[in-house]
Structure formats: C-alpha cells, structure tokens
Amino acid sequence: MEFTEIKGKIVSGVFALTSRTVILQVIAFVSTFILTILLSPSIFGIFFVVSAVISFLSYFSDIGFAAALIQKKEEPTREEYVTSFTIQQILVGSIVIISFILSPFFSSFYKLGDSGLFLFKALLVSFVLSSFKTIPSIILERKLDFELLVIPQILETIIFYSSAIIMALFGWGIVSFAWAAILRGIVGLIAIYIICPWKLGLGISVHALKHLLSFGVPFQVNSILALVKDDLMTIFLGKILPFSQVGYIGWAKKWAEVPLRLIMDSIVRVTFPAYSRLQADSKILSKAIEKSFFFLALFIFPVNILMVFFINPFVQIIPKYSKWEPALFSFYLFAFSSVFAAFSSTVINALNATGRIKTTLIIMVIWTILTWILIPIFVFFYGYNGVAISAFIISFTGIIPIIIMKRIIKFKIFSVLYKPLISTFFIACMMFFILKLSTNFKTIFISLPALVFIYGLLVWMWMRKDILPYLPKIK
Fold first, then answer.
1. Which residue from 39, 236, 289, 342 could staple onto 43, CB 3.0 to 4.6 Å apart?
2. Cα 322 from Cα 272, distance rounded (Å)
3. Which distant-in-sequence residues (6+ apart) come within 8 Å of 181 by Cβ?
4. Whether residue 290 is found in the same domain as residue 201
5. Are residues 138 and 65 part of one domain?
6. Same domain, yes or no: 236 and 248
7. pLDDT bucket at 475, cuts 50 / 70 / 90
8. Residue 62 pLDDT exceeds 80
9. Which of 216, 240, 264 delimits the end of a domain?
10. Residues 3 and 44 in one domain
C-alpha cells in the first residue's frame, strides 16, 4: 500500500470507527439505561459474571494468529488464512465441548439457576458463531477498510439490544440476554460474509504455523494477562460478593468508560495495523502519537467531566434509577482511572505495533500483580467500592509506558494537551455554578446541549488551526 494511501486510510478509518462507536454507544447506553430500569441489579450481576467467563474462554481461541496476520508486512497467503482458521476452530470446538460438559458444575458454583445456565450455553453458541467471522474481519482490517467492517457491528448491536429490551418487557428476565446474544451472532455472521466473502477451508501448513506462532504467542500472552487482570477478577468477585454488588461495580465501570468506548477504541483499532506499516519512520510515528493524544484529550476530557457532574442528578431525578445510587462513589473513581487508561493504552498500542511486545508484557505483569494484590485487600476493608479504589491507585502507574515510549521516540505531551485541558476546566466551572443553582430535569435538559455548544465554539475559536491540518492527512 502506498504511503499516501495509508495516511488517508488512517484518517478515514478513525472517522468510520468513531462514527460507528458513537452510534453503537448511543444505542448501547440508551438500551442499557432502559434495561437497568426493567431488570434488577442481581440479573445484571449474573450477566456480567457469565459474560466475563465467555470472554475469558475466548482468549484461548486465537493464540494471537489474528494479530500476526494483521501485523505482517506482506499479504498473507491462502495457506496462512486457512491454517489460522483451522487452528481457531479446533480450539473453539474444544473449549465449547468442555464448557458444555462442565456447565452444570459452573452453574452450581455460582448458583445461577436454570435461566443463568441457559444464558451460559447461549453465549457459548454465540462464541462459535463469532469465530467464523475472524478471517473476513482480518482481511478488512489489513486493508484498513473500517468503513465496511463497522456495518456488521452496527447491525449486531441493534439486534442485540432491541431483542433484549422486547423480551425484558415481556418479563423474560436473564433469558432476554441469552436469545439476544444468539440473534446477534447469526445476523453478524451473515452480514460480514456478504461484505467480505471468504471461502472456508480446513488444513494446517507447518511453515505457515511457525510464522504465525512466532509473533502470535507473545502477543496472546499479553492479552491473556489482560484477561486475568480484568475478566478473571470479575469472575472472582462474582464468588465473594453478592450479585447485586457485582452489578453496582459493572454499572459504575460501564458508565465511567463511556469516553474510552467513544474515541479511544477507534484510535487503538486503527493505529495497530497502521503503525505496523509506519514503524520505520520515527518522525511520522511521533507525530501520529501526538495527534492521537490531542484528539483523545479533545473528546475524553469534556465527556468525562460532563458525566462526573451530571451522573448524580440523573440518578436522583430519573424514576426507578435511584437504586444505582450506591454505585456513584465507584463511578467517580473509575471515571478518573479511565482518563489515565486512555493515554497509557494508546502508548501500549504503539509499543506493540513497533514490535516491543516483551516490554508491554512486563508492564502487563506489573498491572496484573497489582490488581490481584490490591483488589482483595480493599474489597475486604471497603466492600465492593474497594474495586474502584484499587483501580484509582493503579491508574497512576499508567505513566510507566509513556516514560518508556518517550525514551524510544521523542514526542510532546503538555504542549499537546494543555488547550483541551484548559477548555474542559472552563466548562467544568460553568457546570459547577449551574448545578449550584438547580439540579432539576429542566435545568439539565437545557444546560447539557448549551455546554456542548460552548465547548465546540471554544474549540473552533482556539484550536481550529490545530485540528484542520490533521483531518485530511498526517504530515
């Protein structure tokens, strides 16, 4: 791919994924809001725990082959695609068979009941359907054709939440999530094969396997550590805490990470394949990191502060939503942690894209050890809020990958971040005085769009020279 084409694809890819993310998050969070009214915290607790188990299993279905194919400089061969697909199906099939056999023990261990067990089996079926989408997704990602890749994801989200809400209205409870997951898997699979047809094939090439393992295994070890740090911890919490308290943790974490899902995920998704092709030019890479930081700050800072100020009034004034008030303290701490996570995750992504997987592996080991030491201690002393307290403390170590990356490639931080930071501070002051006057629904309904407009106007007046040159290309 020509260098100029890569530059254009980076920008279009980020915009496509960001637009998709905005659409998906609007659907997801409006739907989650409705579901949190219709369903109890304990049902959400069961869903979070079972989803974490499936997520845990999924990490063993790939062993890094997808990352190896995306990162490869040359176009992967048919043999490499078929080998990757075959190995993945062997792993997925083995995991699903074992999980079905052990499902009664899992249900008994967590006291899930018949409905919770059905949810577990439904998510396993969805897991199998998802595995068939891997190769078409890799092909689109290598081409940086994210505009096409987002279509199945939008359809999946619409199907999942619409069906879950309809079934919840009919009183299906936790079973609503089960059937919604199966429908999502079927629709997503059909959609991606229409967009990017790939002829299924089975077979293993020893030569292709060796190449895929050389990059994939260390990459996947890194991913598994992230899994142990996050999803396995959720599974552990599901055993030591009541499901209602796990629901509080999940609610607080989900809403606090809205800014990450809105913008950070898009940048990380595009920059891994893009940086893999730009790693030879440190000057270009430095500019790309700086611009990633700038646009992250431009969106994450104001969205985060808006949520911090308005989450409590929303909980108080919305009918049947006061049941989530015990989760507010955790939300505030998770919100602070998410700001650090946005920038540290971007740098981790750059380190991986430039082949420094061993460095990120060491960092991930540190974070995993800290997580498993601090969370049990703080949960013992402070209950479910101990999870957020631990995340708050660990977030300060996010400076480690940034320091390491700055030693490898020189890039600016303060000169990139100060304008979004000052603009956000100005908006925060306005919010403080508005909420001092009133916290009723009318005040919030009027002030929110007004604050967004003022921030946008401030950005345009002060930062348009910083933004406009970045939109069409990376210099």
1. 39
2. 41
3. 119, 122, 123, 125, 126, 160
4. no
5. yes
6. no
7. very low
8. no
9. 240
10. yes
